[in-house]
Amino acid sequence: MPIKIPSDLPALDVLLQENIFAMDSNRAASQNIRPLEVGILNLMPNKIETEIQILRLLSNTPIQINVDLIRLDETTPKNTSKSHMDAFYHEFSEVSDKNYDGWIVTGAPLGMLEYEDVKYWNKMTELLDWAEENVQSTIFLCWAAHAAMYHFYGVQRQIRTNKLSGVFEHDVVHPNDELMRGFDPCFWAPHSRVGEVLKQDYEQVPGLSILAQSAEAGTYVSATDDRRLVFITGHPEYDSNTLALEYERDVEAGLEPVVPENYFTDNDPSKEPLVRWKSHGNLLLTNWLNHYVYQNTPYDLSTLRRRQY
To answer: In CATH, what number is assigned to the domain containing residue 200?
Structure first.
C-alpha cells in the first residue's frame, strides 16, 4: 500500500531504503482516487521509532493512505525533539472536527499507574468517546487496549507479579473472522507489559469476541462485532531488536528484568533474537485495513455515525 507521508519525515528515508511503498505528498496529489484517512495517536516516548514500525505495517495493500500523526497536547516527550513534534504532529484539537477511516492508538509505558493518575487521562477519554463517532475502526495496542477496555466497559486490568516479556505462541479462536484471514492456526507475537485483562472479563462484554489467545500471554486480539473497536494486547509492530533494547535498558537501570521468553536464541541474551512474528504482524494490519476499514467505511466520511451498542 502506498502510504502518503510528509516529504521530510525521517521515517520516509528508512522505509524507502527497505523498498517499502511510500510516497511523498507531491506524488500523492497526482492520483485521482479517494485515499483512506488514517490517524496514529503515538503515545510512545520514542516517537520516530514507533512511527517507522507502524508505517511499515501499513504499507502492504494497494490503496493509498493519508496518514496523520497525532499527539494529545503540545507537551514535548523527553525522547523526541520539539522540532520533530512541531513539524510532523497535529494536536488532537486540530483534527477533532475531521472524520477518519481508521485510527491506531499505540501503547505507552504507563502499566503501573492507575488510569485516572495518568496526566492526560481526561484528554484520552475525550478522544476515545470522539473515536466512536468519527472513526470507522480503531486499533488499540497494549496499554491503550487495556485503557480502552476500562473506559468503554469498566473492565479493570490486573497487575502481573512479573512483567510479561517475550514472544509467545497464540491460537486463532475464530478462523472465519476476516481479521484472522490467512493466519496459521498457531502463530507467534511479541508482548511487553505488566497489565493483564482476564479472559473471563473479555467474555462478559456483550458484542465483543476474542479472536486470538495464548496459554501464556492470555487474550491477544479481540474486537467488537461491528468491527469498529479492535484490542491488541501485544506488539505486532515491534522490530527484531525492540525487546532486546528494552531488556538492555532495564539491565542498565538496575531493574533486574527477566530475560524475554522465547526470544533470544537458546534464551541467551548474548545471542541473536529469533524473529518469527513479522509475517503475522503484517497480515493482521493488512486484514484490518482491507476488511474492517476499506470494506466497511463510507465513501463520504461525513456520514459516519456513533457506534450502536
So the answer is: 3.40.50.880
146, 170, 191, 235: which is the annotated catalytic residue?
235
At 33 the pLDDT is: 60
Is 263 contained in some domain? Answer: no
Each residue of 74-125: pLDDT tens digit?
877 778 889 999 999 999 999 999 999 999 999 999 988 999 999 999 999 9
What is the C-alpha separation between 293 and 138, in angstroms, rounded?
A: 9
| 255 domain residue, yes or no | no
Is residue 237 among the annotated active site residues? yes
Of the residues 37, 49, 142, 146, only one is catalytic, namely 142
Owning domain of residue 285:
3-160+167-238+277-298
Q: Which residue has the higher pLDDT, 33 or 44?
A: 44
Whether residue 248 lies inside any domain: the answer is no
Would you call 186 a catalytic residue per the annotation? no
Say whether 84 is catalytic.
no
Q: Provide the 3-class DSSP secondary structure of residue 250.
A: helix
The structural domain count of the chain equals 1
CB-count exposure of residue 63 (10 Å: 0-12, 13-18, 19+)? middle
